[in-house]
Write a structure and sequence with these properties.
The chain is of the alpha/beta class. Helices cover about 25% and strands about 20% of the residues. It has 4 helices and 9 strands. A 5-stranded mixed sheet has the order 1-2-8-7-4. A two-stranded parallel ribbon has the order 3-9. The relative contact order is 0.22.
Amino acid sequence: MHYPDLKSYHMYDDIYPNMLNIGWLDKSYDFPKGKVSRILVEKLRYLTLLAKEQDMFRYTHPSGIVIHSGLVRGPIFKCPYCKEKIGLFEDSDQSDNPKGVQLGINTMEIPDVNGDIIYIFPTLLYHYITEHYYQPPQQFLEALVSFDLTKPFNCNDLEEKIYESIKK
């Protein structure tokens, strides 16, 4: 499933101009390659692993950071390049590790630097960056740098704010 980077997110006939796609890769399309700093890769890994403790129905998390949205809607998306399901684990021992998450199940959302835009991306983004050298747009990387891990954040609150601004 491919959506071009920095293009408006859409669902069915609804277009959300303040929600921008990042990292929806497909084997049929080329993508920019490069290196992402180790610090940002580790931050993305941490954010991706937040899914394991998030209540997906109430959109709550013990840390106060909720960036995972979208429940499973059908089969788990496999990596289009590896053609297999991908898991992410807290440590290198991946055998029956309860501290891991299945990638390709839901989406993640973080705000841009100003909080006016939501970047929406698949949980496979970490895998795409580390295994296939996907280079996200600079604006997204800046948003990832500025995302504060010490403050509560709920992507649904920002979504509601954006939806309301669209209705006006």
